[in-house]
Write a structure and sequence with these properties.
This protein has 389 residues and is α/β, with parallel strands linked by helices. It has 2 domains: 212 residues, GTP1/OBG domain (Spo0b-associated Gtp-binding Protein, Chain: A), CATH 2.70.210; 172 residues, Rossmann fold, CATH 3.40.50.300. 16% of the residues lie in helices and 24% in strands. It has 6 helices and 16 strands. It is rod-shaped, with a radius of gyration of 29 Å. The chain starts with a strand and ends with a helix. 43% of the residues are buried.
């Protein structure tokens, strides 16, 4: 099962409350305050992992709740901190905040003296990224427009993180700080404070995780154009191949290897249909996976197997990409004519070149490994040129 979008609930651990205690031992009848501090609550942390390719783990565990910190104890003993939860997600995962909860405050001690002010809340609009073991804090402008297309962003909340590199971490919910014990409030005028701070509540909220596959080359075309067959021919990927449309129901990733050990990642996007920019045929679920591709390959069925003209397919594909996100047309794109082993394909190719002038076309027959080496050379040069630009 392939899951590329999931809604989750996350809650960090609450901080433990500080202790109210006094030092007692033989011959010290009136020792000073010795209440320990509460432990910090555990945080919920997302970590990008290039070994994962979908969000199926969160499909089965949609509630992520970290441990609370332990309360402080006497004799100056601090409580244990709650353990962090580290959730591995695939590279290319976007995090949208749907709501931010307001957890109930920890119970305060009912003592004769007034309790001190609570610790300032850490559930602010600060996102903490950890990369390679070094923690840095960044202010996130949540009013800024999220990267990516606008049509599907409505109703998803606010974009707060985009995890693209292996090992990159994002603190989804930060654990609450532990309260201070009464030993911290002793002064010359108040030597026996009988109060302590309660623990700070941990952050919580509802979030939507969305995967946009990170690949260098994206294969785009109509259903039954031969994208899966081409991916099988150029890589070790083995997507389902059959003689009917929509055989591929979710994106497939293939690794293209070269003799000099160079490697490229190619994404086979399920077939698009007219109206895909309006989510017809689950168009949004497919189109978003090519947003990160450096190069787009338009694969056309030059034989017209499904009674469609290749030049009409070409115009319609460009139209859908433009309506979904105009920036898609700014990416380098190449046209590949598939199924050239069919008798009518050569005639259609000549018509295509007359109708679509000044546009180079690479003819191949993926089912018979014809033109595969030329195609692998083409996408390698295209990716290298895109990297330089």
């Amino acid at each position: 099962m392939f899951i590329d979008e999931i809604k989750i609930y996350a809650r960090a651990g609450h901080g433990g409350k500080g202790a109210v205690a006094f030092h007692r031992e033989a011959y010290v009848p009136k020792g000073g305050p010795s209440g320990g501090n509460g432990g910090h609550g555990g945080s919920v942390i997302l970590q990008a992992d290039h070994d994962l390719n979908n969000l199926i783990a969160q499909y089965y565990v949609p509630r992520l709740i970290a441990k609370d910190g332990d309360g402080g104890k006497g004799k100056g003993m601090d409580g244990h901190a709650g353990k962090d939860i580290i959730i591995n997600v695939p590279c290319g995962t976007l995090v949208w905040q749907l709501s931010q909860g307001q957890p109930a405050a920890a119970t305060e001690d009912d003592e004769d003296e007034a309790a001190p002010p609570r610790l300032p809340s850490s559930a602010s609009l600060r996102s903490v990224f950890r990369t390679s073991g070094r923690e840095t804090a960044e202010e996130v402008d949540l009013s800024a427009e999220p990267s990516g297309p606008a049509p599907e962003a409505a109703g998803k909340g606010e974009l707060i993180a985009d995890l693209t590199e292996h090992g990159q971490q994002f603190i989804l919910c930060k654990g609450g700080r532990g309260g201070l014990g009464n030993r911290n409030f002793a002064t010359a005028a108040r030597q026996t404070p009988r109060f302590a701070q309660p623990g700070e509540p941990g952050g919580e909220g509802e979030y939507r995780l969305e995967l946009r596959i990170v690949a260098e080359v994206g294969l785009v075309g109509y259903p039954n154009a031969g994208k899966s067959t081409l991916l099988t021919a150029i890589s070790r990927a083995r997507p389902k191949v059959a003689a009917y449309p929509f055989t591929t129901l979710h994106p497939q990733i293939g690794i293209v290897e070269y003799a000099d050990f160079k490697r490229l990642t190619v994404c086979d996007v399920p077939g698009l249909v007219e109206g895909a920019h309006q989510n017809v045929g689950l168009g949004h679920k497919f189109l978003r996976h090519i947003l990160r591709c450096k190069v787009i390959v338009l694969l056309l069925d030059m034989a017209g197997t499904d009674n469609r003209a290749p030049w009409d397919d070409y115009h319609q594909l460009l139209h859908e990409l433009e309506l979904y996100d105009p920036a898609m047309l700014e990416k380098p794109r190449y046209i590949v004519a598939n199924k050239m082993d069919e008798p009518v394909a050569e005639e259609n190719l000549q018509k295509f070149k007359r109708k679509i002038r000044k546009t180079p076309v690479l003819p191949i027959a993926a089912g018979f490994d014809q033109g595969i080496e030329e195609f692998k050379k083409l996408i390698r040069e295209a990716v290298e040129e895109a990297a330089v630009a």
